[in-house]
Amino acid sequence: MLNGLRFFQRAIPKDIKGGYGPKPAYDWGEVDRNSLAKCVLTLCQQVRDIMSSEPRLLEIPAPCYILGDIHGNFPDLISFEKALWRLGPILTPASFLFLGDYVDRGAFGVEVVSYLFAQKVNAPNKFHLLRGNHEIREVQQMFTFFKECILKFGEKVGREIWEAINSAFDCMPLAAVVDKKVFCVHGGIPPPWIGDGLVNVVNTIPCPLPRPEAMSALSWELMWSDPLHLEMLTPEQQQKLLMRDGFGPNVRRGTAHVFDEAALEMFLAKNSLSHVVRAHEVQQAGFQVQHKGRLLTVFSSSNYCGGSNEAACILADKLKLRTIRIDTS
Asked: What is the pTM of this model?
């Protein structure tokens, strides 16, 4: 699959041996879609078997590069590859953790997922994939990934591809602890009345998890919650937060919760952690540091939805966190 994606990635100005005519970069050209579909389906089963055997809460040693939302941006993913694991993940002296939201919005969700799944199969102990809120069927049907599968493979095969990919998503871990001190997740921390605010409870989340909202309130919070911006609140609203352990309804998303600095500090202290690294929100510089430096948001897809934001990642190493912006031009 990785060799096929190299072909997809590059432009071909004229006919080459094998009968493939000219094609632009990031295009499959005359590749037989049924053969491609068989490769994707096989890959989905392989990666599903691997992730089914993993704990729901991963423990990853440092050094580790942490990447946020990709959202079908295959060119940016390749920019990260060139900068961070040019020789491949096996020969790179670091692990790689992706925080979810691989599909929707961008045009290359199938290719992003195929690339990440192939790397996971090749280096299961070096490449780690968490689930985000767009790795949910209902969300994809509202956005673009379901339509992308149908467009690229046709109605019948496209549905089969979409379901196989989502069947793998159902088995993804939900969170990770890097370097024994950094809690990593797509959305945010859960309120204490769900799992008592303990990270090891994440391992009780069922696998597979085809209906996370109905099957696990904890998984839903991990995928959907957000940090709170106190400057946007009235004194009355801040007082209500104090009465709910620093958590309030996530009005912007219409689901899950928001959490303030006090809630974050309580969560970190309870679990002997130093920081939380999460994704879920686009950042102009590719990252944002909040709550006295103990909460970092990272976003790894530049020019998101036609905007001008940059792409970034975070390196966790030797009990330090370093933000890295990637040139994706």
From this structure: 0.95
